[in-house]
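User: Please check token order:
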Amino acid sequence: MKNTITNNYFEVIRPGINSTFQDLGRKNLNHIGIPFSGAMDKRNFILANRIAGNNENTPVIEFAYQGPKLKFKGQKINFTITGNVSFKLIKKEKEIYGNCYQNYTLEEGDQLDILSTNKSVYGYFAISGNFDVKFQWGSCSTNTKANIGANDGKKIEKDQLIKVSNTHSHDSKKNLQYMDSKIEKIRVIKGTNFNYFSEESKKIFFEKEFEVTKLTDRMGMRLAGPNIKNIVDTNIKSEGIIKGVIQIPADGNPIIMLSDHGTIGGYPKIGVVISSDYDKLVQIPAGSKIKFKEIELLDAEMLFKLYEMETENLISKIK
């Protein structure tokens, strides 16, 4: 049973790092320069909502490396955190360390301290209800580079009040036995400009390691490693690009386009990360090494179907 309560809210004691409201993103706007955006790790976003008892596209708070510290005011609600995250509840000076993929109850005056992600980047905080946020072009997803989406297109800030509405039963104690797995290699299909690069560079791209740099954000993942040599032209006429495209600028260091990417680009594209590996890709923290593996389009399509089946199977195991 749902009830609209206008005096339920969170006070932001600490905003965390890159804490924003996200859902599954906005569609069919690339032609006017608006990217898809949305949660970086789709599976963990969906699982957070399902465990909290929500529709899978309900807005959540996404955070990177360190989450917010929040104080709750109002009637009881449940919350869920997904990812590989350390967090604790502070109830009347008593500290309770929590587990991801499990519901917990927040009561008047409780504090939630989302301490950090563990050897990963993104985590998700969902409540049994709705954050009272504005939608733009059918989505709340926040793109801070373009100031689009909920919260006036900005990150969550210290001392901000986050209103909650349409709460539902706090008696449901759902959980899921799940641990996010790692992936040995990021699988890619050939890009449209694959033949712009020397045979030696193609070999290097699929055999050598690259390091994820600190310049990575929701727009793109910048890598450093052996130089990828372009033998045709380091610039091309700007054209449409999609999430997962791997561009090679003149310096020879790959850039992978992520959820808030620009909708056109003028650097040659050596490959595209397959959709089923995207969640794993975005969870690789700065300083880590990654390797690529080439696969064919038909294999990528099959792997995506398996990814969707696995996600549905996990949802069915929530109890």
